[in-house]
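Response to reviewer comment R2.3. The reviewers asked that we include at least one raw input/output pair. We reproduce the pair for ABC transporter ATPase permease here without editing.
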Amino acid sequence: MDLNAFIRFGLTEVVLMLIYFVSSGANSIVQSGLKQVMDNEIRNDISAKMESISFEKFHSNNSSVYTSWLTNDINQINSSGFSAFFTNMSSVVMIVVSAATLATVSYTYLVTLIIGGLLIYFAPFFFKKIQQRSSERVASTNSEFTSVVNDSFEGFNSLYSLNALHIIGQRIIASAQNVKKVNVRNSIIGGSVNLAINLVSLFCQLAILGQTGWLVYQHQVNVGALFSSITVASGVFNGLIMLSYNSSTIRGVLPIFTKFDQFISNQSGHELTTLPSDNTVKIENLTYHYPNGTEHILNQFTYTFQSGGKYAVIGESGRGKSTLLNILTGRLTGYEGSVMIGGIEYRTIDPLTLTKKIVYLDQDPYIFDDTLRFNLTIGREISDEMLMEVLKETQLESWLAGLSEGLNTKLTQHGDNLSGGQRQRIALARGLLGHPAILLLDEGTSALNPVMANAIEQMLIHRKEMTLIMITHHLRPELAETLDDVVAL
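Raw output as returned:
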């Protein structure tokens, strides 16, 4: 009989252990899945908000800052936020079960537990501001490190040419040391919070010990309850320690969310999201200087670009040619004077609305690390017939015929596997596929040979409905003759 009881007990223990192991594994899987869902929700939210960010606001940071938001900051939210939240859930269960057990011994324990719990929970609030500042420094330093790494590797070609590749390691190591310093300081602050919580917990457990001794003295509980009460009370206060500490780390990551919301809030404030059919651009007394500069790049400039007109903008370097195009496309807004399209003042128009009508191709077109098709369509639904027509117009048809993968050919980031002329023509084809009413071209054919450049320029000029404004430093006489005007800055 005793043997049977032992076997039943052993089997019960095995079953309970298996249930524990399975539940622990399932809990880990569920937590991991929930973290991924929440991470993606944050990334989706940031990406959605970025769709309405202004050009100037976006460029107030370099792109590595946003990379850090979607990687380093989310990792910090995971480790100090989501993980702490899930641990708190387990802590709450431990606290409730242990407190209920103590209450069965004597309800007077609940008073001590409530007072102790409040002390433990609110102890970290004394460190709230310093914890948040530390969390902000960690996020900022991680962002700076990402920026240094990206910048160093982007500059590989220049450093290679100067026999200075050692600079890459120097810059990365120096920045990594700064990351280490900030993280160590953050750990010290976290350790200080944990020490404060543990000291309060020790005081509370001593209070439970004293209370139990008093209850034994009063013959309300027996001596055996003395040790069991201390053990159970430890479960309560250990749970409270974890709850308090993890809650403080969760509060520490809140500034990251605040940073996201403040920076990527909808800043438009512009009412008009539709434009008139008249594409005449009228400029009066346009004056502009860059935020950190004092010299006017443009000063009292007045001109009217007629709808469907073809224009060249010329002038020495630094006279404001590219600045003018950036203003016309809505990228730069801090100007004086008036800029109107179809009689509507630019300041009343949502800048993103301008991009539906105006396409600006700058001097250094970006090529995505994706297929040729994507680099042309940018995700738009465009038929192969339309693609082939535009590729023919931009003198890319013969090049495409030589690609074994055709439109599915993979291009590298920045177009490192393309010539300068190919990059320019891909960017031009990409712009024309959007059927722009106004095309702004900044040295858009500078990398092409004269024959090909002339063919493409004439193709653009013969698009009667489209307004063409092109910047050039080498205006050929045969091109000048076909233009409506040449604007000298």
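The beta strands are 281-288, 298-305, 310-314, 336-341, 344-345, 358-361, 438-442, 467-471, 485-488. The chain is about 60% helix and 10% strand. Further pairs are available on request from the corresponding author.
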